Amino acid sequence: MPSFVKLLSKIFGHKSIYFEEGEIKIWNVSMVFIPTKALVLLHSYLKKNKTNSSSLLYDLGRLQAYNGTKLIMKFFGIKSSKETWELFAEQSQMIGKGTCNIIQISKKKSAVRFSVSSFLDEYDKQSYPDNVESEENYLTGLISGVSEAIFNLQYSVKRVKNVIGKRREYLFELFPNKEESSFYKESKKTLNLKQLMRPIKIGRIIKNVIEPKFMEYTDEGSIKIGKCEGILITNDAFSLFVEQLFIKDKKSLNKFGKDIGDSLLPENRFRNPIDLIGYSIDSFSKSGWGELRAISIKKDSSVFELENSSVAKHLLKNVGAKKQPRDIIICGYLEFVLKKAFKKSFKVNEVSCIVQGKSERCAFIGKATRQ
């Protein structure tokens, strides 16, 4: 790898991640923090339902890695496949994917090993079998997308070995494959490289060195907000994923929002509902979903506003205006928070959304349901 690339990685490291106007930025690319457990549970829901939507998470990983790798190659001027994979391995730790080591890189066959990966550890906890030969999930999609960007070929990924010792290790192999879903194919066209290229704010990164951290970065390659482990996903790719799931399975999006709430909120910490809701707003906003605030809080009815909704804003930019609101994940999150605060069920509706092209912010009304 060119020495200047290594130098940049060593100097800036996690300081290239900063918070700005309700968004998490890494190298000036907008990201959102997703709790690991919530993402793995979403995979489980999608795999069990009748819509056969679990492959969307695989395509989400492919899309993020493909575009991210192309951007890295263009920005740093890298042409070597080995150097590109090495830089991806460093970036994977920075955004919470775990420690990645390259075993073999070639056009016909590659092999990589992940260790101390909270995603894969959580994935296996959810009753998935060890040594599964072929499993389409978010992380295997990432692995496939990197090789595709380097060699301009589609790849399938299989997990060939798990090693359980002092730490868990996962070995993956990649092979050329001609299959490409319509969602993935169309999304690549939507997110073209020129559109994604943004000037990197070096001054903002340097300023970030002296600012307090809003995230905790562990030596094992994971990211935490509070005690919640998670990963960073690009908002451009994630918004297109949400749009597809909105069409196919709205219920899973709502349940995903509830699982995010369950992951972000600690147990038995709050003396009253207002403290709990205040903490939930702060944690959610720091996760890069936008700037959430409570307009009114009552035990039977509450109103919230969201400035700079990351999903709606990027969907509006990449696809265009929609007739219906799209922040179902946030509705699910607020339903979980209100239920936890007031000990009764709530139904939250998004009454206006910036994706509709008529409002500058998103608005939500939560009302208690009959028991």
What does this structure look like?
With 371 residues, this protein is α+β, with helices and mostly antiparallel strands. Helices cover 45% and strands 23% of the residues. The protein has 14 helices and 14 strands. It has a 6-stranded antiparallel β-sheet with strand order 1-2-3-10-9-8, sandwiched between helices. A hairpin with an 8-residue loop joins strand 13 (346-352) and strand 14. The longest helix has 22 residues, at 55-76. It starts with a helix and ends with a strand. The model is unreliable at 1-14, 129-134 and 202-212 (pLDDT under 50).
Please list the strands of the largest sheet in the order they lie side by side.
Answer: 1-2-3-10-9-8
Q: What oligomerization state is this entry in?
A: single chain
Q: How much strand?
A: 15-25%
Termini separation comes to 61 Å
Q: Report on the biggest sheet.
A: 6 strands, antiparallel
Give the CA-based shape. globular
Rg, please?
Answer: 20 Å
**Strand/helix succession:** HEEEHHHEEHHEEHHHEEEHHHEEHHEE
Structural class determined from secondary elements = alpha+beta
What's the number of helices?
14
User: Stretches where pLDDT falls below 50 for ≥5 residues?
Assistant: 1-14, 129-134, 202-212
Key terms for this structure?
single chain, 371 residues, 6-stranded antiparallel beta sheet, 4-stranded antiparallel beta sheet, disordered N terminus
